[in-house]
Each structure stands twice: as structure tokens, then as C-alpha cells.
Amino acid sequence: MRHPRTLDPERTALVVVDVQERFRAAMADFEPMLAGCVRLVRTFHLLGLPVLATEQYPKGLGHTVAELREVLGALEVPEKTAFSAMGCASVPARLEELGSRTVLVCGIETHVCVSQTVHDLLAAGREVHLAVDAVASRRASDRDVALRRLGQVGAVPTTSEMAAFELMADARHPRFREVQALYK
Predict the structure, then answer these.
(1) pLDDT at 4 over 90
(2) Using CA atoms, how far apart are residues 97 and 65, in angstroms rounded to an integer?
């Protein structure tokens, strides 16, 4: 029997929040965060699990970075002005349609859009896991405070690798070797 707060592939979706071009130069840890997001999207694709993504005001912040856009494929990435991804009407509607009771969140910025997304997901009754190696803020202090606060309000801290292996649960998973290769 698995713990009820372990990621379950039958009910989990990934939400990638605002990994956009204008943030690239503003964040010291942009590249490691991006690598975590890309690995998560690839993992979810390999496992046949749903991925949602958003862009915050792309006219001013640019579109999703090319490296992530490439792995997202044909996925529609809606524009939002609300800081929370849940303020983008298609996100809560899609999560409901999918029956995703658990959401793994990654993206930018930890203390603004990611934080408000996590809070709104929790308020909507969803279990939220936060990939701490796949979130970033311009200032380390903002990221650190946000991670502590989000843990206090109920988000489950995880890493991209931890999440991937929880979703597979067993080395006999048919996609184990492919997913494992993403994290070597």
C-alpha cells in the first residue's frame, strides 16, 4: 500500500508556470530550473500523463523559451494576466476535465505566479506537489521564503527525479529505462 500523498499517475497532472524568455537573463538559476522543467515535461510525455502550461503577458515577457516549447510540442499554451495559473480559465477547466486531483507544479517565479497557483490549487481542493529543483525567482530570498511558506500551507515538496520515480513506482514500469535516462 502506498502513502496517500505519493504521486499517483492515475490522478496527476503537471502545470508549468510561465517559463518565458524575458526571465532568462533575470534569474541566476534559470538554466537548472529550465532543465528540471524540461525533464518533467519529458517524463510526463513518456508516461502518457497530462501537461498544462501558461504564459504571463507574453507581449511584455516573451513566449515560452524555445527549449521548453520544443518538448511541449503541439500543446496550447494560453496567455494569462492573473498571476495564478488558475486565473487562466482553461487551466481549472482542463484539470476538472482530466479528473486530476493531484497537481505537480514547476516554473517561474516561485514567490509570485507559482505561489499563487499553488495557493489556488490547494483552495480548489487539489493536492499539490512542488518540484523545488524546477522553480526559480530572481532573488534567492524570495524563492526560499516562498518554498517554506508553500510547505506550511500544504504543498508537498519534491524534486523532478523524486516525482518521476514516484509516478513509475516500480523498476518494472514499461518506461522505466527511458525515464531513468532523463535523470542520469
Answers:
(1) no
(2) 27
Q: Provide the pLDDT for residue 28.
A: 82
Q: CA angle 173-178-179, nearest 5°? A: 75
Q: Are 62 and 119 in contact (CB under 8 A)?
A: no
pLDDT at 78 > cutoff 90: yes
- Match 482553461 to its residue by C-alpha cell: 90
SS3 of 130, please? strand
Q: Which residues contact 184 (CB under 8 A, 6 or more apart)?
A: none
Element (H, E) at 131: strand 127-136
Of the candidates 158, 112, 157, the residue with the CA atom closest to the CA atom of residue 136: 112
CA angle 122, 148, 130 (to 5 degrees): 50
Q: Which of helix, strand or coil describes residue 172? A: coil
Answer yes or no: CATH 3.40.50.850 is held by domain 12-182.
yes
pLDDT bin (cut points 50, 70, 90) of residue 1 is confident
CA atoms within 13 A on the CB side of 56: 22
Domain ranges of the chain: 12-182
